[in-house]
Amino acid sequence: MEIWINPACSKCRGALSLLDAEGADYTVRRYLEDVPSPDEIRDVLGRLGLEPWDITRTGEADAKELGVEEWPRDAASRERWITALTEHPGLIQRPIITAQDGSAVVARSEEAVRDALGR
């Protein structure tokens, strides 16, 4: 199990606390420092069953500067979104946990973290 975190994020700290309390075996990836490649983002999207716009933090300053709210959300624009997430990793929703069964969850709630633990 791997968890993508931003240490400054309270949701990430909460997820880590719960994983620790449950004695989970996991690896931490500080994705702002160890930026995911486009292939890694594609892989996580496949595990999540989501599209890149679904995990983009559109309220961030970088998102506003890029104008992502105006970008099409279709197959033809998918790579543009993935490139933006790679070039501006702060736009990636967090935390993301990749579960043992090959799936992943955006673990913003205790329920989502527990879901990942049960996989």
Automatic annotation (TrEMBL):
Keywords noted in UniProt: Oxidoreductase
Signal peptide as annotated in the record: none
Protein name: Arsenate reductase family protein
Transmembrane domains' residue ranges: none
Organism: Streptomyces salyersiae
Recorded superkingdom: Bacteria
Family indicated by similarity: Belongs to the ArsC family.
Pfam families to which the protein is assigned, alphabetical: ArsC
